[in-house]
Amino acid sequence: MGVAHHGSYAAWFEIGRTELLRTSGVSYRALESAGVFLVIAKMEIRYRRPIRYDDVLEITTRVASGTRIKITHEYEIRLVEREGAELGVIRDRGDDLLAVGSTMLACVDRQGVPTPLPEWLMVEDRP
After folding, report:
1. Interatomic CA distance for residues 15 and 21, integer angstroms
2. C-alpha to C-alpha distance for 29 and 86, rounded to whole angstroms
3. pLDDT in tens, 25-73
4. Are 95 and 55 in contact (CB under 8 A)?
5. CATH no. of 8-119
6. pTM score, two decimals?
7. Rounded distance between C-alpha atoms, residue 70 and residue 67, angstroms
């Protein structure tokens, strides 16, 4: 069909989370070595426009909220480059936003038992 499979979006969200963690100075490998595991408890994806093969994308990831055990991320996937397309026109129409989504991750230990997030990873819920 010439468009990205819907399952690809989950992988792109994971890349966004991993890179966000890396910018805080911690690799996911180091997190797991410390016995901290983040598992997906909920994922929502809203597909706005199709992503085509060979599109160049930008994935923006931010921490939206959190509790003692859970953390929620929000995502935007935007078109940066598409062969044969005038990106300026696409942006002017607001059609460069291809998908939005969110994930809720729960913190578990090595046995899969819910455990508190490390202090440095916690975000208090906003009203």
Report:
1. 10
2. 40
3. 888 898 899 899 999 999 999 999 999 999 999 999 999 998 999 999 9
4. no
5. 3.10.129.10
6. 0.86
7. 5
